[in-house]
């Protein structure tokens, strides 16, 4: 049901002018530790075959949100990207697993079911060079900075924040990553289902390199469109040249004191 819903919405997005279309985190299954094993698929598998066909039949790049992936090592939360000819051109496994405990609000331990990925993944399209993260990954500025240093102009994070962290941090983190790195940031969330065991915040969004939200959904299902003006990215980088002013010679990796 979810895959055919994604098929229809993706087609609508392309009719509306999209050339790169992205789906939400865990778009083919409910997001929850007890669901991952039940819904996990190999790659290639049923869902990724459908994503490849969606790319071909619509002639677009498809960033396939994420799905629970099963391979010999275990389960992962994985994004796949398909080119308009249907080829798998990128695969990214969520690197930072969502393990948090806010008593009375939200306790979630993704690592009870999933393994973390350890590979950075970016890819180039005729429109932009794009880096991938998934949801909780957006909290880690280093990941975004590494992609910026690799030449990414857009970061896409399929993500499902929740009713506690969503209102507090979702937009703030996107604007922060966009501003830190002077690039576009897009997030793609499932719409809110108040009856689900994990209630997603929704609010898929696109932020520009100046830190401005240029397109946004609310809680309900919606296709969010944005034009990426790379001229703005270069302009912001020229006028506020923090990327070349960084004192990389002085910043040393250190272990946080907790
Ligand atoms: N679901 C996530 O991976 C992350 C999240 O909800 C948060 O960081 O808050």
TrEMBL record:
Q: Which GO terms describe its biological process?
A: asparagine metabolic process; glutamine metabolic process; oxaloacetate metabolic process
Name the catalysed reactions.
Answer: 2-oxosuccinamate + H2O = oxaloacetate + NH4(+); 2-oxoglutaramate + H2O = 2-oxoglutarate + NH4(+)
- Is Nuclease given among the entry's keywords? no
Q: Lipid metabolism as a keyword?
A: no
Q: What's in the GO CC field?
A: mitochondrion
Q: Which GO terms describe its molecular function?
A: omega-amidase activity
State which Enzyme Commission number(s) the record gives. 3.5.1.3
Source domain of life: Eukaryota
PROSITE patterns in UniProt: CN_HYDROLASE, UPF0012
Give me the segments passing through the membrane: none
Name the UniProt key words of this record, in alphabetical order: Hydrolase, Signal
Q: Which residues form the CN hydrolase domain?
A: 1-230
Family statement drawn from the similarity comment of this UniProt entry: Belongs to the carbon-nitrogen hydrolase superfamily. NIT1/NIT2 family.
Check the record and name the PANTHER family matching this protein: NITRILASE-RELATED (PTHR23088), OMEGA-AMIDASE NIT2 (PTHR23088:SF30)
What is this protein identified as?
A: omega-amidase
Q: Which species is the source of this protein?
A: Eptatretus burgeri (Inshore hagfish)
